[in-house]
């Protein structure tokens, strides 16, 4: 077994502070863009929004540049670029509109009859997220 000091190259899953640590790191990397109001970050989900296409291209290039400078990478199969509608954290975002994702609406519509306090708590936990 190798000996010495090791530095992780990815965030450990399952550690109590991992989400908060990662969020703080992302907030630090993109602080100016977050203050400018063209970016929303939730853990590893990044949403870039702009008023026009030209501005959007600039914001996207800035985000990609910052990711590269910070040795962070994207999974291309999880990325959507230059779209006017996106599912972000269970919400469908369109210009001037915010709606719930269809699968979330369907889950509420087919929810089984609530017949206990525990079942009610489960439903309220789901519903309160939205």
UniProtKB/TrEMBL annotation:
<dbReference type="InterPro" id="IPR051320">
    <property type="entry name" value="Viral_Replic_Matur_Polypro"/>
</dbReference>
<dbReference type="InterPro" id="IPR043128">
    <property type="entry name" value="Rev_trsase/Diguanyl_cyclase"/>
</dbReference>
<protein>
    <recommendedName>
        <fullName>Reverse transcriptase domain-containing protein</fullName>
    </recommendedName>
</protein>
<dbReference type="InterPro" id="IPR043502">
    <property type="entry name" value="DNA/RNA_pol_sf"/>
</dbReference>
<dbReference type="InterPro" id="IPR000477">
    <property type="entry name" value="RT_dom"/>
</dbReference>
<dbReference type="Pfam" id="PF00078">
    <property type="entry name" value="RVT_1"/>
</dbReference>
<feature type="domain" description="Reverse transcriptase">
    <location>
        <begin position="1"/>
        <end position="93"/>
    </location>
</feature>
